[in-house]
Fold these 2 entries.
Entry 1:
Amino acid sequence: MGIFQFQRELFRRSIFKVFPQNSNWSLALLTSFPSCDSRLSPNRRLCMDNIQGGSGGMQFKQIPPNTERLGEIITHLRDTFFTDEPLNRAVKLCRPGEGHHELERHSEKTIRDGLSVMAIAESGEIAGVALNGILRRGEVKKALDDLKDSKDERFKKIFKLLYEENLKVDLFEEFGVFKLFEIRILSVDCRFRGQGLAKKLLEKSEEVAKENDFRVMKTDATGLFSQKTFSTLGYSTKSEYCYSLENGRSPDFMVDPPHDKLKIMYKVIE
């Protein structure tokens, strides 16, 4: 066994001490954790040699709307979320390290809401982000209408599903609110796994939601692991969409197991 294979096996065993073998490193919107393999861009392929030991010294900060670290955040997403979120991967939206104009515009627009948070390692690197935005009544319908202008059919396929499923529920009416705190992207660098960063990013996001007088948080969880993480933090499932064969119809997305459904999840906060 070569040194790389040996390090990879040690990493795999250390992960399975924390998570069961049938879990996956994906969180969704879309939230996602990448796999540490050769599909990653060159600047991330050495992550096996740079596993950080423990989360001591990690800082969790709110991202300013006009952050000077926007370029670093987008680079982080290109190496993680853009290719490894389950639906993105299913349609082969883009390759590791590549940019995607519409996803980047979506991310930048979310950051401008001023509710996002990031985890910063002792080295100063961005270890993970939770991109959170404000969702107001009527915005999903408008976004679906605007989607026809997109030139990327794969992008349209993903967001058409998300918007149509969101239109089937009405959290605004149910809870008597005019705005929702929406967790849109949750991503952690592969070098900082096993430290509970995703959970801490969500806890920090909840603090931000409370400080800004939100009563309801919601997310579109497209991966099994994200759904389990949100559940442990008190989120409930409002609706589900199964990716697999159902009632004789062909699957719309060939999503890798163990991911089998999209869940719209929410949490009422005091």
Note: Residues 58 and 99 are 27 Å apart (CA to CA).
Entry 2:
Amino acid sequence: MMMQLCDQVLSLSEYKAQLYDYLKSRMNTIAPNLTAMVGELVSARLIAHGGSLINLAKQPGSTVQILGVEKALFRALKTKHATPKYGLIYHASLIGQEAPKFKGKISRSLAAKTALAIRCDALIDGQDNTMGLENRAKLEAQLRGLEGKELGRFAGSAKGKPKIEAYDKDRKNGGLITPAKIRWRDFTFQHLSYSFWLRIFLRQRVPGLKAFFIKLCLLC
């Protein structure tokens, strides 16, 4: 019994491999650019959902993006909730390998490029997958740009202000061209003018405060 079950599993796996090879050869012949963009399985599902390659070529990129989740779209519009961002195109490798916050943006770009690839495959005879490979390379470069911007944003988000120091190039004839700011850890009472202490003395009327400020000014 166990040997028969193992034989069935092996035969099913071989049949699956044969189906995949057949699907791969057929999709590379029928829609090479679409296959280069989203893969064989996703391409076959899009064509099956659209009815044919010609019918799919009539759809805009926004429809290709949400193809397969029409019920969820109309339900969201009826209940005034957030609409879905992707349908069958979600299973493409370009979307699956991205972070969740970039999936919506890259799905819009991929759907637009996929619509162009579908029209190219449907309306041009003897077409190879050159256009699909070029558009896929552009999308991958766009993904790397988005990831680079995110890393740059996190790298530049450190708190704190840079310290302003006085360099030799800022000195001219013993003085500073652009005077450096005073750091609080180097702050002393000498940085406060006598008019400052006088204003404090005039505002405060406390016994013994006059003698205290006089001593403080002498110390400074």
Note: Residues 99 and 165 are 41 Å apart (CA to CA).
